[in-house]
# Entry
Amino acid sequence: FFFQAEDGIRDKLVTGVQTCALPILAAHEFGHFWVARRLGFKVLRFSIGFGKPLAVWRSKHPDGTEYWLSMIPLGGYVKMLDERETPVPDAERGRAFNHRPIPHRIAVLLAGPAFNFLFAIVAYWLMFVTGVPGLKPVIGAVQPDSVAARAGIVAGDEVVAVGGNATATWENATLRILDELLADARIDLTLRDRNGNTRNAQLDVRGRSAELTAPGALYTGLGVLPGPVLPAVIGAVAPDMPAAQAGLKAGDEVVAVDGTPVGSWDDWVSYVKRKPGESVEVTVRRDGQRQTFAVTIGTAEERGKTIGRIGASRTSASAKDFENLKAEQRFGVFEAVPRGIGTTWEISALTVKMLVRMVVGEVSLKNMSGPLTIADYAGESAQAGLAAFLSFLAAVSISLGILNLLPIPILDGGQVVYQVAEWLKGSPLSERALAIGQQIGVFMLILLMSFAFYNDISRHIGS
# Structure
């Protein structure tokens, strides 16, 4: 697939791997390498990538370790002296992997994932030191008859806490909402309205976890759109349409319809859509004065459904609208350390919960992504700025660390299981048991990768 993919996809994949995967893979393999060296293992080769080497150089270290940069940049490995793979001189048997103490072997195996988590901590630390730009979690619109609408949430409400945990930005709020969703699917929100008053609301979405955890489905499913809240100011009026025929003009601010106050442009649009063919009284503010117009709403077809339309469009969101919602998080060099550790822990815990729920069918399998989607996100996050890119790298590094801890024989976690089994048995496992385990591991990994590639291709075909 890698070599036969069309040029655009292949170039995107290569660029994504170069900018994202290589530093994360290097950190993982360096963890194995560094701990192995410190514990007395003989390291024969340190390779980033698989296959034929593109560049090779030999260390001046007495072990003569080879460093490879290989052709296929989708992984890496650290090759250690091992009697099961090649004859080992008697003088060096004590440094072979299979002759080192089992706790030392386990430490080497766990070092790769550990360095992935360490990489994430450093990335989050740097992100918090340089500043994390974000937007306050202000709700821009609420869809009629949605979970949010039934809970009494309105446009302009700010989410100040989820499950009792403060939320300074939409990113914070999203993580807390997902955590609540995976806990009991009852999302407890603390809201602050435009007048500064706080109140509590609960979104009960039990039985909808798989639906709401599909990529991009969370807020649509809850029925809310992130801010800013745009006032119902008409930016343009189409000729020969109901708005123009009724006398509405660009610059008019809709303040009420049939006596019902209008708080935002989305409120106004929702009201119009629900009234196809009906006549309504529209009150606007024009040049500081209130005026009322009779408007007969037209009709249009949208996804097989008849909706109302009047031929008026809103003004564009101004820089001021977003300026008022800015909420940058920046911390000092030392204060950012616990922040980095805490964020790594939160994302790791959430990833494990998502993975477990994915297995039992309570989380959408569409969340599983392959290298194409990762490459897409790498490019988008790099364009979004340093903080977004660091956050993305940290999240991918955490995912790689957790993936390698799974008890699949070909991965680090599966190798740890082998070592524990040998420890309990008192002797090495048979070659047949190891071979069967490897076959199972390869099958499971191919299955996992195939599903991830399927999701990737489905996203690209559907985009």
User: Anything to note?
Assistant: The first strand starts at residue 43 and ends at 58. DSSP finds 14 helices and 16 strands in the chain. The longest helix spans residues 7-38. Confidence is low (pLDDT under 50) at residues 1-18.
